[in-house]
Amino acid sequence: MKNRFSVIKEHFEREAAVFDKNFARFAPRYAEVIEALVSSLPFPKGRRISVADLGCGTGNITKALLKKYPRAHVTCIDLSGQMISLAKAKLKGCKNIEFHVADLREFKFGRYDAVISSLVMHHFEKGDKKAFYRKIYDCLKKGGVFYNADITLASNRYLQLMYMEKWLEFLRKGCSPAEIKRMLNNHKREDRPASLMKEMQTLAKAGFKDIDVIYKWYYFSVYGGVK
Ligand SMILES: C[S@@+](CC[C@H](N)C(=O)[O-])C[C@H]1O[C@@H](n2cnc3c(N)ncnc32)[C@H](O)[C@@H]1O
């Protein structure tokens, strides 16, 4: 059987070209999520900060970040070479951007004011999260921040079923039944979301303070903390 990250890599290599066209139909309130991530960075607008965008995909988060921080140095990392190629094209002409095709679990981080990530961490096994959040903590400068947008499970079965129903209502507005079926199959095969409460605890165990939930829409949350 194929290892789950090989399946994830193949998925994003295959679908990179249609990612931007599709993603706002698949991920509810994607624009608001990006806005929440970028707004959470506590540094004055325009400051030259160093940022890592984990699982940068086609570069949507970095593109939004550069509007607030045009002088930022951004390290964009993604497992998929196709996603990185599209990110390079989208961010062409932007200075101080590094691109890496790499698995985050093995990537040697630099030193950052902020680490941001959108809809990536749910690929990680729950048991690997604490060590990975500690790795993020260690690469941050003092006062640095980690903010993560992700799928997060509810705290009980009733709420989880309701979250799924809300997501399905959203999907039905923009996707065909075949697309929804394919997406839910991918979700089951590739994703391992943790509950939001568990994520808060894992961040605390990794050393973060001022842990907070900045944005939430049922199954989707933006949260993080400060070093
Ligand atoms: C749903 S996309 C999100 C892309 C982007 N962050 C955004 O919000 O537009 C998830 C991305 O995470 C990347 N990814 C998943 N697991 C990864 C890993 N272990 N290391 C690096 N990238 C990973 C995938 O290749 C894919 O581009």
Describe the structure.
47% of the residues lie in helices and 22% in strands. It has eight helices and seven strands; from the N terminus they run ααβαβαββαβαααββ. The chain binds S-adenosylmethionine (SAM). The site of S-adenosylmethionine has 20 residues, from α1, α3 and β2.
Shape: globular
Q: Quick one: CATH superfamily?
A: Vaccinia Virus protein VP39
What is the fold named in CATH at topology level? Answer: Rossmann fold
Task: Note the total helix count.
Answer: 8
Query: Under the CATH scheme, which architecture would be assigned?
Result: 3-Layer(aba) Sandwich
Which strand order does the major sheet show?
3-2-1-4-5-7-6
Average the pLDDT over all residues and give the rounded result: 96
Structural class: alpha/beta
Tell me the total number of β-strands: 7
Question: What is the CATH top level name?
Answer: Alpha Beta
- Bound small-molecule species: S-adenosylmethionine
User: Radius of gyration from the CA trace?
Assistant: 17 Å
Poorly predicted segments: none
The biggest sheet amounts to:
7 strands, mixed
Strand content: 15-25%
Total discrete domains: 1
Give the topology, please.
Elements: H1 4-26, H2 30-39, E1 50-54, H3 60-68, E2 73-78, H4 81-90, E3 97-101, E4 112-118, H5 129-139, E5 140-151, H6 157-174, H7 177-190, H8 196-206, E6 209-217, E7 220-226
Parallel strand pairs: 1-2, 1-4, 2-3, 4-5
Antiparallel strand pairs: 5-7, 6-7
Helix pairs in contact: 1-4, 2-3, 5-8
The structure holds S-adenosylmethionine (SAM).
S-adenosylmethionine (SAM) is lined by residues 5, 8, 12, 55-57, 60-61, 77-80, 83, 103-105, 118-120, 123.
